[in-house]
Amino acid sequence: MPPWRRPQKTWAQREDKVDPVTWRFEDEGDEGALRDRTRAERYVSSGEEEISRVNLALLLRRPLLVRGVPGLGKSTLAYHIAWRLGLGRPFRWEIHSNATLQEGLYSYDAVGHFHEGREAPIEDHIRLGPLGTALAPTERPACVLIDELDKASYDLPNDLLHAFEEGAFRIPELKQRDAVVDAVDGRRVSVRHGEIRCHHHPVVVITSNDEREFSPAFLRRCVELRLQLPGPEQIRQIIDRWFGGPDGLEEVLTNLGGQPTDRLLQALFLTRIHETPLEEIARSVVEGKAE
């Protein structure tokens, strides 16, 4: 581990420990968790370059910036990494054009606090966001997915740099007191004098559909990975993982070669539901008319 990423205290010395994130993807009755585990298990790597880039990001404790056209499995890669490392489901932050750093770190319901009255504890109205939860001090690192960062305003990527470098953030509303607040997953997190500081830097996966460029300063602090359209060998493995065998591989390559992974899977699932030739379904999927 790089010296600038080592915890300042041992785990035993921490007084603000947070319960660990469950390593399990599937909770009883939680269909979303089971679906996430399935997609994580069946993810097919694009090759050695991808594996090397992921390992480099993990070793350097740097964000992994995954770039490429929509539908290649960029978000699924985050779930696959978390599953392989036993880190539990990633905390997902879906970016929109007005997203701010504070939104990812925490939210404060000032209106709700006002209605309850001045005597109500302010911490009862503060909730950590996906990034803030991932920065909570746990014995093992958490994984956070910052999805489609290219949708953000110009400032947000650079605003993220401080949180990434410091592994900490402040909640000014709590700067004069110690408190316990809710995390996005329901756990309780201690806040000491308005600050939350991680024990291990989280595994950060950032996705981008390449709709904009990022600043050189931001790119220097990330490990970049560019995903390409799946080739024949990757398509064969995808069919094997999802459908148990590469039957009809040549027909798939003929009709769906050069398509993103999501369209490929959509067409293959439809051929198993409808008695329709793959060529016709592939045409509908490519044109965006499949139902």
TrEMBL record:
Residues 60-233 form the AAA+ ATPase domain. InterPro entries: AAA+_ATPase (IPR003593), ATPase_dyneun-rel_AAA (IPR011704), P-loop_NTPase (IPR027417). GO terms for molecular function: ATP binding; ATP hydrolysis activity. It comes from the Bacteria. This is MoxR family ATPase.
